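Review the following:
>
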Amino acid sequence: MPKRRRLSRSAEFERVYRQGRSKGNRFLVLHAFPREADAAADEGPRLGLSVSRKVGGAVDRSRVKRCLREAFWAEAERLPDGSDYVVVARPDARELADRDGMPGVRAALAELVDQVGSSAEGRSGGERSETR
């Protein structure tokens, strides 16, 4: 994955959290925020991950992050190009990664991608969804 396809700065994460829309389930929360048209012209979706110590130790968090990255890029073709996404792993995400591996994480993320995609289709440009 190219480095530019990741969110790295704190300000980028904050913008997605504060101005974007979010959908969640037992395992994950997906935050989405469309970038400005000129900034997003030639880039695809960008990903940021947040996996806290509540998920587990360093080994567990790394495994969850690897599964999340792989699942996100497998689902990325269904997402609009000019948007930023932050995936937040809830503590149960470790159990999901241990039990079901990448297919389980991808299924949980696909559910959220479906919800974010359907809420984006029902909105007119520029207004913000308050679904949290």
